[in-house]
């Protein structure tokens, strides 16, 4: 059920929207009192910010950053961003690559803002609705494949998103394959990390003394994070990320 908060809503309704945002955008965590966004909560209750503003604040929070950006592989980080902010999984390798590049080149905040400021977000949630899993309901324009992938990434209240560090879609999206719905493996980490990916980079020089304008690196999914970090430190620009088949 969608949770909407309009200007004339009561404090109790604002609190429902706050709890729903924490639950869905943060991926079913336990939020301690010290981790709550007290200022943003107060502003939402007073009608000084919208639900969309509050969602952005949650995405920018140290809570979200530490659990998903700093501790998850880049592929997992992006697929969770799609679910948490747009209510659907990524649909193509191009979408994933675009967001990984944005995060590397423009930074963490720009990556979060790209979802919250998107036309897709506004069309589906506007300023007043808490994001929800769009793949869990019948919706025009969403395919059965999207539902299956959404189920792989978001297993509902039984799974805390941060308990799974490895991507659930790292094999299916690059090959445009479907995901079979199987029993949850939320406590198993490392799934799919042996997939190989080719990262094409321009302007990087981190294999000095080699100095070339274009470089390709073939790495396993588990090594994507340190490789991307090294590329970023040497001012390289990621052109594409594709699966090696």
Automatic annotation (TrEMBL):
It comes from the Bacteria. PROSITE patterns: CPCD_LIKE, PBS_LINKER. Keywords: Antenna complex, Membrane, Photosynthesis, Phycobilisome, Thylakoid. Its main location: membrane. Residues 194-244 form the CpcD-like domain. It is found in: Cellular thylakoid membrane. It is a peripheral membrane protein. It holds the Pfam family PBS_linker_poly. GO terms for cellular component: phycobilisome; plasma membrane-derived thylakoid membrane. PANTHER family: PHYCOBILIPROTEIN APCE, PHYCOBILISOME 32.1 KDA LINKER POLYPEPTIDE, PHYCOCYANIN-ASSOCIATED, ROD 2-RELATED. This is Phycobilisome rod-core linker polypeptide.
